[in-house]
């Protein structure tokens, strides 16, 4: 009797697996998935108004939007492309000496909007991927993303005359196969000469990405075999809620990589191998979804939720495309087509009505960042901070630390605004507490002369006093006017904009129009529940406000 039961159960499971493999069903309802894609696209469009070159607030947002079908203005993509051109030119085409995924990420993003990565400001970004040794230096990420980038536009393998070893697609495929771990999955350095303690255990993120890279090569017996072993590994590491953990933490991004991997392979997300207790990986990913705010990194909200939002976004886009029978996320024969750059969209040219003294700050320190806003410390304002730091507009508290949650003095604020607008610093000697020899004297003088900052009396400035949120709004609004923006908001509109905040009545009358302008133009986030007008503003918040304003003024 027991034997008969086991046979029956085996047959039943086999039937379920067969049915699941041929039926493209989704546990997440169509309407729920469609709403999530639309809502997150709207959030991304607002949250990343001026995409920069970077892993947050840059390529992933562009890729998600471009592959989602969400209606995005051509100007948005044009400005991004102009930013890329300026960035590549500032580095003479050498994006990084070690991290060649910098090239791959840009190639994929440019391909998604129909731009040619072989000619970006006169540089061929594909060439770097012809250098085998440099591409594999950073672990398995290198060959994985080289293949994804090359295959996104079916680009031929570039010839790299300076390479010690000329790469081929076969070499990158074989590198991935050679690094497969005994359990069937992959880790960042597992199977390489750089492997360390812990690298022998498969990671769902790397395993998912490896499968994405190998997806186009399933006609090869060795690849097909490795894929089958990897899928079994994924099935075994999936938890009872349908999700995954990386480095001991259950998170949304791991789910994303598995969803994208299955979609690239054309495997139903409801395949019985990847359903636990009735939960698919997509089901689990959606538990991190917050309508209007993208995705969380963890259920508690710890970690970089902006990074999670961008990755969660392209994850559900991949799921939607699979459901609808469209080409996969990284097979971009149907990419958005953006026409060539025009002077109208030239990034950094400013607005027609700007003060003639206002100029765009060029990138002088490409890739400038800080340890406390990147990696495990990834910060939601990372894009803004890095964009300003790369142009010398804002500095860290030290070489490696930005201290995003620290407050900012009035002198520091005057300095970054003057630098952000490209104004020539010149002391005016108006304030008795601003000594002529002080490092900030010229910046305060210029900011005051152009009407951006005032003193706290007719003769004093209080340079070491901290800036409140409403003071920052007033000063950014004045800077915006200098940049040619219309900062006027009528009294009715002021009331309508500010009345949504519970502490509206706590704002000072002199600051309300500026606050309304900043919220209306999304220089400040309207999703905040409170204005907190008298609270000292944080360095990260100042960076985000100035970044948003300069982007709107076309000075980035």
Provide an overview of this structure:
- The termini are far apart.
- A hairpin with a 2-residue loop joins β3 (275-276) and β4 (279-280).
- The chain has 2 domains: 22-344, Glycosyltransferase, CATH 1.50.10; 348-552, no CATH class.
- The strands form 3 sheets. The chain has a two-stranded antiparallel sheet with strand order 1-2. The chain has a two-stranded antiparallel ribbon with strand order 3-4. A two-stranded antiparallel sheet has the order 5-6.
- The longest helix has 21 residues, at 2-22.
- By secondary structure, it is mostly helical.
- Mean pLDDT is 91; it is low at 1-25.
- It has helices at 2-22, 30-47, 59-68, 74-90, 101-112, 132-135, 141-152, 169-178, 204-214, 221-237, 252-265, 281-286, 305-323, 382-389, 410-420, 441-449, 469-482, 491-498, 509-520, 539-552; strands at 245-246, 249-250, 275-276, 279-280, 289-290, 294-295.
- It contains 20 helices and 6 strands.
